[in-house]
UniProtKB/TrEMBL annotation, chain A:
This is Sulfurtransferase TusA family protein. The keyword Transferase applies. Belongs to the sulfur carrier protein TusA family. Keywords: Transferase. One of its GO terms (molecular function) is transferase activity. It comes from Peribacillus saganii. SUPFAM superfamilies: SirA-like (SSF64307).
Automatic annotation (TrEMBL), chain B:
SMART domains: Lactamase_B, RHOD. The keyword Cell inner membrane does not apply. One of its GO terms (molecular function) is hydrolase activity. It comes from the Bacteria. InterPro entries: Metallo-B-lactamas, Mito_Persulfide_Diox, POD-like_MBL-fold, Rhodanese-like_dom, Rhodanese-like_dom_sf, RibonucZ/Hydroxyglut_hydro. Keywords: Hydrolase. This is MBL fold metallo-hydrolase. Residues 17-112 form the Rhodanese domain. The keyword Cytoplasm does not apply. CDD domains: POD-like_MBL-fold. GO terms for biological process: glutathione metabolic process; hydrogen sulfide metabolic process. PANTHER family: BETA-LACTAMASE DOMAIN PROTEIN, PERSULFIDE DIOXYGENASE ETHE1. It comes from Peribacillus saganii.
Length: 75, 375
């Protein structure tokens, strides 16, 4: 999936993946897509909930070799 | 203002003492709805930490000033962040060390009573998850029943009181938590007992625990009598310890009874459950003190934090023991089942030795409340 920006949040523990995601998405235009890589298992549920509460759209999420990947479209 | 670290032990003491505590839980809403720190006089506010990244000003009016405030999250990181923000705003707040992960794993040992020969029986209250396990001690020997996966806690406790663990039991194959029984037995060279009917698929050596077995701990003074009591699982076995304590496993709780469906056979086992509760248990002395393997609600705790009540009292007060009509009983236990515990199939397979998840995976599998009862 295409993205406009990639955020590497691997190795970071909660709350940093969300803190950095929020910061990164602030730098995007509405409709642009942020790709996030994280290893903190808790990031998944939190990113889903955060996207919803922030009006963003979680387009897709995958997990491969312990790395969680998310594609979030800025609302 | 300062941020204070509060340990799971300190929170447990507040639960036991029925103290007031205001909990600001900053996990996401689903996690909070599913499972939280329970206390009779605790108040709650759930606001996910990610809604507070721009500041806490908007919620300050919802945080009491004259009350102890504890910020809680999954692992601790977010709660420290929020606690520091509140502190910067002039509030005195604490955060829970290790978060809900630590809360899930914390065990508080409570002495339930003395035994005839001077030994004692201890209940290990897993306050965050509602699991109860036991240590019977006599003359320098100890038996452990229904241990959690936190094996170190039991071995350290036994060391501390100068007792050698000689026998380890599980009343049944658990579906809600990972047993530490095998680990403790291997570490201490103790005998590990399991009911064979629950162990048909296990891939390790164990000592079969059969109806009428007697095991002596210490100087022939304590008998652990196995009492076959199927219903929660087909092998479920109860123990009578020192002719005084009935360890009822997941068959009978203080305010509820065991659910028969976690091995997938509710319809088959409901009859066994009824037979155990309404016939086999009825033949026992009403003076026996029931020590179950779980509590479901915080109100089941006695003032000292223990979970224990006379069998006679339960016959009078426990709804699940007072349904005369068999059909109604059947409907209650099969038609009224709560959601199944998190990852219960994987937990069963782990307890059979079929899969060996790593520490982090085990932790994840056990997240959430136990759900072994029907009310």
């Amino acid at each position: 999936m295409n993205s406009d920006k990639v955020l590497d949040a691997k190795g970071l523990a909660c709350p940093m993946p969300i803190v950095k995601t929020k910061k990164a998405i602030n730098e995007l235009q509405s409709g642009e897509v942020l790709e996030v890589h994280a290893t903190d298992k808790g990031a998944k549920a939190d990113l889903i909930a955060w996207s919803k509460s922030g009006g963003h759209e979680l387009l897709q999420s995958t997990e491969e070799n312990g790395v969680l990947q998310f594609w979030i479209k800025k609302g | 203002m300062s941020v204070i670290m509060m340990t799971a032990k300190e929170v447990t003491q507040r639960v036991f003492d029925k103290k007031e505590l205001f909990i600001l839980d900053v996990r996401n809403e689903d996690a909070f709805q599913d499972w939280k720190i329970e206390g009779q006089n605790f108040e709650y506010l759930n606001i996910p930490y990610f809604d507070l990244l721009d500041g806490v000003e908007d919620i300050l009016h919802q945080i009491p000033i004259n009350q102890e405030v504890l910020v809680v999250c999954a692992k601790e990181g977010s709660s420290i962040m929020v606690a520091e923000m509140l502190s910067d705003a002039g509030r005195d707040v604490s955060y829970l060390q290790g978060g809900m992960k630590a809360w899930s794993e914390y065990l508080e040992p409570v002495k339930v009573g003395d035994l005839k020969d001077g030994g004692a029986i201890y209940q290990f209250v897993r306050i965050g998850k509602g699991c109860l396990s036991y240590m019977v001690v006599s003359n320098g020997e100890a038996a452990i029943i229904d241990s959690t996966r936190m094996a170190d806690v039991y071995t350290a406790f036994a060391d501390g009181i100068g007792a050698k663990i000689t026998n380890v039991f599980d009343t049944h194959l658990h579906a809600d938590h990972i047993s530490g029984g095998r680990t403790i037995a291997a570490r201490t060279n103790a005998t590990y007992w399991l009911p064979p009917k629950d162990a048909t698929e296990v891939i390790f050596e164990y000592q079969p625990l059969e109806d009428g077995n007697s095991v002596t701990i210490g100087n022939t003074t304590i008998n652990i009598e196995a009492l076959y009591s199927p219903g929660h699982t087909i092998g479920s076995t109860s123990f009578v310890v020192d002719e005084k304590y009935l360890l009822s496993g997941d068959i009978l709780f203080i305010d509820s009874i065991g659910r028969p469906d976690l091995a997938g056979l509710a319809e088959d086992w409901v009859g066994d459950l009824r037979e155990t509760l309404y016939k086999r248990y009825r033949e026992l002395s009403e003076e026996l003190i029931v020590l179950p393997a779980h509590f479901m609600i915080i109100e089941e705790l006695n003032d000292d934090g223990s979970v224990a009540k006379k069998l006679g009292t339960l016959f009078a007060e426990n709804h699940g023991l007072n349904i005369t009509d068999e059909e109604e009983f059947r409907n209650m236990v099969t038609g009224n089942l709560p959601p199944q515990p998190n990852a219960y199939q994987e937990i069963r397979e782990t307890n059979m030795g079929k899969i060996t998840p790593d520490e982090e995976q085990r932790r994840e599998m056990e997240i959430g409340p136990n759900r072994c009862a029907v009310r």
